[in-house]
Amino acid sequence: MIIYFFFFYFLIGVAEYFRISDDFKEKMQDDFPYHENWYLELCILGVSIIFGPVLLIMKIFLKTRNFLKRIWKKITLPYRFYVFRKKLEKMEQEPDDRKKAKMLFDAMREVVE
Fold first, then answer.
1. Which DSSP symbol is given to 33?
2. By residue range, what is the domain housing residue 23?
3. What DSSP string describes 73-109?
4. How many CB atoms lie within 10 A of CB 16?
5. Tens of pLDDT along 26-83?
6. Which residues contact 48 (CB under 8 A, 6 or more apart)?
7. CA–CA distance from 52 to each of 3, 15, 48, 62 (Å)?
8. Is the dihedral angle over the CA atoms 92, 93, 96, 101 positive or is it negative?
9. Which pTM was predicted?
10. Structurally, how many domains does the chain consist of?
């Protein structure tokens, strides 16, 4: 079972190596002009195999988390407006102007967050 894992991990790393654009490889050659091209290619391949799958997993996790955050904000927006309206009604009954302003900005902050 572990052999399949390492084989799959290796395949993903090699796929990442081929996915890297030629522009990146040219930038590497420009940044390190005194190194041989085969040495730079070997370094890129090694880094792709070692870190490629891990970075892909992190990328999938972060994109999923951000997607779910945006969806949650869109779903809860009507409720946040309802709470905002209730706080505005409570604010109108307050006699102190400074406290009114503070309550207004607190309510607005809760809608934006």
1. T
2. 2-112
3. HHHHHHHHHHHHHHHHHHHHT---HHHHHHHHHHHHH
4. 19
5. 888 888 888 888 888 888 888 888 888 888 899 999 999 999 999 998 999 889 889 8
6. 13, 14, 16, 17, 20
7. 18, 9, 5, 15
8. negative
9. 0.61
10. 1
